[in-house]
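Dear colleagues,

As part of the handover before I leave the project, I'm documenting each prediction I ran so the next person doesn't have to rerun anything. This entry is a single chain, and its sequence is reproduced below.
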Amino acid sequence: MASIFKLTLTRTLLATLTLTIFAAVNLGRAQNYISVVTNTPGLLGYWRFDPVHQTNSMVNGYQGTLYGNAQIGSPGSGAPIASDPANQGLILDGQASYFVTTLAGGITNSGTTMAWVYLTEDPSVAGRDFQITAEGQIANDFDFLLHTDNLLYFFTDTSSSTVSPQPVPLNQWHMVVGTFLANSNRVIYIDGIGVATNTCGPHHPDNSLYSIGENLQFRGRYFVGKIAEVAVFNRNLAASEISAIYNAASPNIVITNQPNGFVLYGQNTNLSVKVSSPTPVTYQWYFVPANGSGQAGAYAEIISQFVYGVVVTNGGFGYGNIPNISFVGGGGSGASGYASVSNGVLTSISVTNAGNNYTSVPNVVIDPPNGFLFGQTNSTLNIYANQNSLGNYYVVISNTSGSVTSSVVNLTLVYPPSIVTQPQDQVVTAYGTAFYAVGAAGTSPLTYQWLFEGTNLPNTYANTLTIANVTPQNLGQYSVIVNNNYGSITSSIANLFLYPFIDMPFAGAITYWGYTNVLGVAAWGSGNLSYQWYFNGVAIAGASGSNYLLSGIQFTNAGLYSVVVSNSYGSVTNTPEQVVVNPANVSLGLFAGVILQGTVGYNYSIQSSIDLSNPNSWTTLTNIILSSPVQIWSDYSVDVHKGAQKYYRVLPGQ
């Protein structure tokens, strides 16, 4: 028998996968079929057309010759015949290809011709008869052929024929048989069943030649397809003999599609076989779990050193037969028991011998189950692929001639990618470095592709992503797609945020009494930035923008100004900077006096001194109200020609 298939596990994908078990054929089938044929009385010739015997008959030493393109097939050249998976038969292309041999002694008053045929074209399509076998060169004597109406015809005399009621199907192996008894009856069988019979006249034997694939009398009747296992008997076989020969071809398990060995975790998977059999078949599936979960359990009960009972704690599953029960340990011996099983489950254990000298409770040892799956009697077994599905699966197919067991298929659970650790939001300082990582699981190999705002980032194929020298252009949403051969998954969004950063700080100012000044900063940061200006360390009410307006500045506005910029992730402070308020901007010309730059309408006092070392030497010369932003005042009391020296200053007017 062939072996079993096994379901094993790797790691991670979700989709349905239907597999077909690659079921091996019972190697004894061919020998069984050959034995039945060769032991049937009256066998004249038996041409198997297999790689071993080629054109030679297995009995009576007849050798034949191939003509045209006729050739003996080999494994892999097409569908094998039901009786032998290594035999492809005699391959004929319908173009003057056939086989001829001698048949000494020949067919006289009764006979049987038998062959397995595999049609690849209907005779009606070819527009001619397809000859299967023919005797000698006498017209319509012992000729077996497919006519242009696609029906099977059998001739044994010159006056009549027997015709099958239905055609032989294409692209399948079928056993066709014709039997006759001269002046009595003639019968056609297809696949062991008689399908047509009528009376026949006398037979006129011609024992010189026997052809397969062409009629030597009516040339051009060439067979298209394959012929194998041709047997000729010198008597008309009984229906029971033909049925026995056909049934010797036990179930033929055919691969419908080769499994790839991988199933998706968490999905339903079908394991199936396709069977070709001459008689109805039955199926029984088996499963032996890898983790031993089908094993039944029980404990013994003792009294006065005798085992008097057993309690089943776990009935297990997969018991297709009655397991052996034994009692181990406990210091005694001789105890025995008998298990009862229902629907594959161990239901009870009866003590058949109490044994003796059990000073402690012995262990109840139950043979493991043979994997019998109760009720799983179809050609397909559906399983849910998970950890509990791991183990050995196989199916036994039976018919009236015997049984075969399916082969081993090693199935591996595979997983699509899954995200174990999502990439996390990052908050960095300006020109800093952001680092993202994703943790993924799944069947290897895993591949990665990072995205920024939904667009692939070039050359980002690792499970980590580094962004250096961060600026506002880098801020946004990052994600990663993880792929393998069984699917893909996209991570959650990970944002890149920026702490507040003052790109253009406030650096202080020198201004003049009454002027209007704007103090300002330029800042970066994620989200909405908020601002708070401070004067000499005290928050200025309402000063909450990037700019702070000082209108009509007074000397009391002079001092240290700073601003704090904040967002949801932190804050940054512009270091305090000085604002200096001067009464006016004073410059000297080539004359005695000053040039004043100040605020129109403001009153300024002009003072002079001739001795700077004496702070009390300053004298007010005049008070003026500026009528223009820049105004010249001349000191006419000074005679510049006498080399007088005088200093001037401007103060707020009195």
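The two ends are 124 Å apart (CA to CA). The chain has a mean pLDDT of 85.

All the best with the project,
I.
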